[in-house]
Amino acid sequence: MTVRQDIHSSGLPILCQSCEARHRGVCGALDPDHLVGLAKVSSRHQIEAGVELIGDAEAIDSYSNVLSGVVKLTKSLSDGRQQIVGLQFAPDFLGRPFKVESEINAEAATAVSLCSFPKAAIERIMKESPELEHRLLKQTLNELDEARDWMVTLGRKTASEKVASFLLMIARNTDSSIDPAARSASFDLPLTRADISDFLGLTNETVSRQLTRLRADGVIRIENKRHVTVDSMNRLEQRCGGRRARQPPFE
Amino acid sequence: MTVRQDIHSSGLPILCQSCEARHRGVCGALDPDHLVGLAKVSSRHQIEAGVELIGDAEAIDSYSNVLSGVVKLTKSLSDGRQQIVGLQFAPDFLGRPFKVESEINAEAATAVSLCSFPKAAIERIMKESPELEHRLLKQTLNELDEARDWMVTLGRKTASEKVASFLLMIARNTDSSIDPAARSASFDLPLTRADISDFLGLTNETVSRQLTRLRADGVIRIENKRHVTVDSMNRLEQRCGGRRARQPPFE
DNA sequence: CGAGAGATTGACGGACGTCAAGTTATGTGG
DNA sequence: CCACATAACTTGACGTCCGTCAATCTCTCG
């Protein structure tokens, strides 16, 4: 389906006028001509939790922007062990340029809305507009930084540090993004316990135990299994196994 | 130090004529003019194992190409726990564009030779030459793929699968790159046992035990602690905890 | 030869996985 | 409205893989 648009209202496709991706996402790199051209072949989708978006070893024929919700990227071993290797929030760009086949699985972790484009359209624009590649490079570098941070978490942190780090990451990617320095936060977990364990390299039992420990220690409160309140972000951060501070100046 | 060059011999700076990075590395993206300009301000360095190249929280003022040897990228927690988050081989590009400060430590794991450029020079050329950004994007995407593969290893594999996976990765990045389908391989480990454990999220004792187990089982032979021979890559691969194969077509 | 770093091997303990039972939340149909 | 089913979650008991600590061995280099 292609969405109706009124180019005269402001030079922008109606589809894009209120779209977050046009500012913070990759579409911000496009001039009006490209945006109009792209909007003609793009389409919005509402997807419910649990639906697979990109299958492992499937051909990729489209890319998307995440407009709301959370998408989980997973990899699996042959015996069923699974690892979440990334989470994508709005307005992230979803898809792996320059590869015909995905080595990754993408699945809606929550209800998700996407704006999808044919692969060919993006790649044509990419050739004409260096600014688009520039944005993609920046996002990819950010994802690489995040992946490397999680490698530290996966390889070197204890179970309780892992769970605390996960909560901190979610808190920073949701409503508390309104105020990054907020001293408290309240949010819904976008993942089930099983998903969280796949993200942290643990079992759901261990995740559950660590959450109840955090609750017993007064670091978090939990309502309805999914809603988490953090009164003191400081206390939560202390449980994450901090990054190395600068060395003291004199040995 | 800036190396002498003879532009007349072929239009290429002498420094670059025999350089691997000019073909497979980022320099392959540059036209002769840019290459000449860059060569004027670039310099080669020989660095011995153990030297720190980029410190955590240090200002970044130069980028480099790795010409030979192996560079390890590490992150640390405040109590000293350390994780290697990436290895760079020739002809990888070393450095994090668009950030004033590194959040990562880079250290020569073996003797290394680098070709370094001032940060400003690269960034100027990047603005003029979209092809350079294109190469950087491709390398960054590859590094992201690798990082995500290691996340599976860190989060979901057993100690013996981790060690086998590590050996396989090293085998594929060294002399066996001559023949990617080779059924056997022989190479020097670029990392100490302690480094390997920091890479795999283990202790050096566990790494050592797994290596002796692989040796006892006849999968590998070890000479002089560092030199490894793999007679059957197949047998090694079987110990890596394979990736999921395609689902059987009917259910 | 001696010193020191790196590596190996063993004994032991603890953190986390496994297995299993029980609880809560949500929906479904009578 | 209640009985029931199902999925997600919690909690406990127990076992094991891997970390910790310590002794010994092997190289390399002065």
Automatic annotation (TrEMBL), chains A, B:
For this chain, one GO molecular function annotation is: DNA-binding transcription factor activity
Sorted UniProt keywords: DNA-binding, Transcription, Transcription regulation
Name the Pfam families for this protein: cNMP_binding, HTH_Crp_2
Gene Ontology CC, one term: cytosol
Concerning PROSITE patterns, the annotation shows:
HTH_CRP_2
Q: Supply the InterPro entries for this chain.
A: cNMP-bd_dom, cNMP-bd_dom_sf, Env_Response_Regulators, HTH_CRP, RmlC-like_jellyroll, WH-like_DNA-bd_sf, WH_DNA-bd_sf
HTH crp-type domain location: 157-234
Question: Does the record bear Oxidoreductase in its keywords?
Answer: no
Name of this chain's protein:
Crp/Fnr family transcriptional regulator
Q: Which organism is it from?
A: Mesorhizobium tamadayense
